[in-house]
Design a protein that fits this description.
mainly alpha, single chain, transmembrane, globular, about 0% strand, about 220 residues, transmembrane helix, about 80% helix, membrane
Amino acid sequence: MNSLTASPLFGILLSISAFLLGSALNRKTKSPLVNPLLVAISFIIIILHSFHIPLENYQQGGNMISLFLAPATTVLGYSVYKQIEILKKYFIPVAAGCFVGSLTSMGSIYLLCHLFHLDSTLTFSLIPKSVTTPIAMEVSSQLSGIPSITVAAVVATGILGSVTAPILVKIFRIQNPVAAGTAIGTCSHAVGTSKAIELGEIQGAMSGIAIGMSGIITVLLALFF
């Protein structure tokens, strides 16, 4: 059993199967609460725990999938290219929104960690939680944080943003697709952007732009921590 699960193929197949299951449940329920990524993570945890499979075994294949994270993020550039005229028209509002969103995210984490007396290592691990994983891990390392904690925070933030984004857009009656896309991309990176694309092409493009802008801004703001 151990030799079977230690194969990279096991982690890859389990990840794909779990995500397909999550996607099927999402299509069937049509509920933002049944997020495919959240379902996949829960399913994988249940399988590993139930069959006493070491996490290291799963990571043999999981780490191979992680290699595609950065290329998958850059693919969003195509939707950005298609909406380049809109970006030129709204560049200043989008840039300002990304800056305020990034500053609010990092500042709120810093203040909350200070309020709850968390140590600096954990604080610096959580500060870059709202940007895409490759950038977040690098920022965390530069701040002497723990990248593994950062990854967990990034994933949780993305899932939360993906689940709540459609609801919040309706609650606050955000009619402008540029504003909606910028907000989603700034606070919940690529996972949120996948939901923004479902809301509309402009929302998806602006969310993809916000990922890049917010990443750059976060790197620069991290110099002051």
